[in-house]
Amino acid sequence: MIIHVDVDAYYEWEPAPDAKPTEEEVLGLQYKVGGDGGWLKRITVDAETHTTINIPEAMILDTQAQSGLIGKPFNRAMFIANLVQTDIMKHHAPQHGFTKVTVEDDPQLEAALNAMLIPPKSGAGGAGAATQRRLARPFQRKAGRNFGELREGTHSHFHTEVRDAEGRLKFRGPLRHNLTTDTASGYTNRRDWQAKAMGGGLGAFFGATAVGSATSTGATSLTNTGASFPTANQGLAGMIVVAGPRATSSSAESVVFGVIVSNTGTVLTIDQWYNPATGAAGTTPNATCTYAIIPGQMPAMFIAVTSDATAAAATDTTLTSEATTNGFARALAAWAHTAAASTYTLTKTFTASGSLTVNKVAVFGAVNTTAGGVMPFESAEPTPPALISGDTLAQTVTVTIN
Q1: Where in the chain are the domains?
Q2: How far apart are the C-alpha atoms of 352 and 171, rounded to whole Å?
Q3: Would the CA dihedral through 321, 324, 327, 330 be positive or negative?
Q4: pLDDT for 204-221, tens place per residue?
């Protein structure tokens, strides 16, 4: 759904080098941090422009379904009006500057949004007329000022918060919808991950080589020359292999696991070995260790960020120029879920030891950036925060599972 909001006043940002904004002023979007780490102050420009918004129909239908599940009424026009006013336009223009709403191919919704979003025009000589908005001027589009949009494929939401070394809030980004990755082939998108996680993947793989003893191991591999691992339909990609002590071992040997990213009939390629007690990197198991392959999928529970400003795309399989230094390396997120709730959250706080402007964030099913596993969710930052050493970046991902 394409919506155009015409305005005769919009927001811009100007440097405010001596500003010391309060947390309330930052939360109220009166100040934000600029690319050089200094403060920017929001100003209102009296000029005509427009904002173009693309709201995915799937998002509206999902919200309607959720309302039905909990017995709440759903008003389509009111939901869209609230989304436009409170989640999108608050970053672009004051409501008193709204002059016209146009909805492509939906005149009934267009009339409703104009009635709900366009403020009444001031009357000549009326009480308080001087404080009301002025009459709309003839609209002229300005080239180059077409603000950001919501993209298709909404499945989860991202939220960003930045604090300085003393814990003071510097930036809180808007709740933004993510882009799900739906590539045409290969084990790289959320549809494969969801289907195999919920259905078990190759659930019938409980044969002789689902458990056994390795003939060799490496930092990213386990080989059994006598195995016949299945390779059709992405094979064992995404499953977990657990490696333990040798069957003939008389001493204590560590237990580790790895995420299978691909396989042949005899070799499992993994992203790395993990210590199940901590989630950190584990040691390479003995060359003749025992192993077991677990049906299902490794959870997508790692968060990564990048300064790359290229627009997110559904065909993305990696996070371009993913940050790996200065405290921003891909990391395990904390999971939270309330019993019977329709959502769960993933939260990770990065502590910067250098500078970075965060333009995109993504969720992965493995921690190793070389063999990165599935990337089901990716999102662009609508107002990229600029971090310096000592800042903390809190990323929260809310996933709807209805």
Answers
A1: 2-120+141-150, 176-193+300-400, 201-294
A2: 15
A3: positive
A4: 466 657 889 999 999 999
Residue 135 has pLDDT above 50, yes or no: no
- How far is the C-alpha of 196 from the C-alpha of 180, rounded, in Å? 16
Q: How far apart are CA 51 and CA 148, in angstroms?
A: 8
Spatial neighbors of 13 by CB under 8 A, at least 6 apart, are 32, 34, 40, 41, 42, 43
As a whole number of angstroms, the distance between CA 297 and CA 277 comes to 19
Beta bridge partners, 102, equal: 4
Cα–Cα distance measured from residue 358 to residue 355, given in angstroms and rounded to the nearest whole number = 10
Tell which phi-psi region holds residue 373, choosing left (phi > 0), alpha (psi between -120 and 50) or beta: left
Return the CA Rg of the chain: 26
What's the pTM value of the predicted model, to 2 decimals? Answer: 0.61
- The share of the chain scoring above pLDDT 90, in percent, equals 29
pLDDT tens-digit readout, 41-58: 999 999 888 888 888 777
